[in-house]
Structure formats: structure tokens, C-alpha cells
Amino acid sequence: QVQLVQSGAEVKKPGASVKVSCKASGYTFASYGITWVRQAPGQGLEWMGWISGYNGNTNSAQKLQGRVTMTTDTSTSTAYMEVRSLRSDDTAVYYCAKNTGITPYYYMDVWGKGTTVTVSS
Amino acid sequence: QSALTQPASVSGSPGQSITISCTGTSSDVGAYNYVSWYQQHPGKAPKLMIYDVSNRPSGVSNRFSGSKSGNTASLTISGLQAEDEADYYCSSYTSSSTWVFGGGTKLTVL
Question: How far is CA B6 from CA A21, A85, B88, B101, in A?
Fold first, then answer.
């Protein structure tokens, strides 16, 4: 079955970077995109960005551009999301989700369980 | 990109029907039939309930239905059950090739 397994919880200091991984299984990684979504404590869902599993093309939310890098490793069917210059308001659960196609307009059908990132001095 | 507008909360009794609205703009909800709805129970990942405005994934109860008129999409849950109590989020593709979520609606089953 399709599964997305995310890396474990992280605690970082302000100004540091964090890299979250998302290992896919049960489908052909290069035929679909991966979307990243985060959820701050007690808040709603925030779309962060999308990456193609085929060629690594990306699109990210304007407010995060310059601080976020999304990459993939097709040899291990793994997607990565790196956030730099962390601030306290980056504290959130970070989710990866599989798109149902290879372009960004495909919706997200399968989600990972989430990775908690805490930014605290 | 501003979040889509959803009511903060709705409630209903078991067996009743409720509708959650999701209002966007002509650059997102009004522009495409790419509206999805997600259910999220506390501490869990979101679960897809409706895609492309009105389609249900395999395994989702037919008590869940979606529709759209202009810049507003809606999710209707009929025959409310206790397990439907959760947060619900709409999302839409946008003209900037991004997605935007609604602020979320807390459904309480009385």
C-alpha cells in the first residue's frame, strides 16, 4: 500500500536549519509530486510547497521563498524539506503528502504522519 | 495568497445534516474545479474526503458530498455520526500554481 514515512521530531534553536525527510513506498515515486504542508500548534493547515518526483521542479509559498529548499532522491524515493533561519513561528507539525499526478494541480491523497519541529532557545 | 474563508465552527445532532462553506476568490475556488476537503481528528494527519469539488475517494462514506457555486465551495455531511466530529479543511488550487487552505472548521456532534 502507498505509504509516506517521515523522519522523527526535531528541536532546534532560532537561526538554525532543519531538514525533514519523507520516504515513499508502494508507488512509482517519479510519477507523482510531493506536497509539504505545516500546522502550527492549534492552527490550521498551511501549504508550503510542491516538488515533482520526476524532475525536481518546485514551487513554494511566497512567504517562505528564500528560506525553504525542497529536494528529492529518486534512488531512495525520498523527498526532503529544509527550512533555514528558523524562527519561533516555524514551530509546527510538518506533513508531506503525495499528489495524485505529476503536476502541482493534482490534489493530495496520501499523507505522512507528520514531523514535529520545535524552535526554542 | 490569503486563506480561504470557512466558519470557525458548526454543530449538529446525530442524524442531521450540516454544510460547511469555503469562500475564495476568482483566482482560486472560482477559477478551477480543483477544490478538496480534508478531515482531521486531533493529533492525526489530514484525510482526503472530497476531491475535484464533488468526487469521493474510494472508502469515504457517501454521506459526504461536495459542491461549488462561483467562488464558494461547500461540504455537506448527512446523517451525522459521532465519528464525524473533527476539523475540516477545504483547499483550492490557485492561479499562482500553488494551493491554499481554508482556516478550518470544527464540527461538533451534539
Answer: 31, 32, 9, 10
Give Cα A96 to chain centroid, integer Å: 4
A91 shares contact with chain B (CB less than 8 Å): no
Nearest to A107 among B51, B97, B104 (CB): B51
Burial of B69 per CB tally in 10 Å (0-12, 13-18, 19+): exposed
pLDDT of residue A104: 84
Tell me which chain B residues have a C-beta less than 8 angstroms from the C-beta of A46.
101
pLDDT tens profile B36-94: 999 999 999 999 999 999 999 999 999 999 999 999 999 999 999 999 999 999 999 99
C-alpha cell read off for B68: 461549488
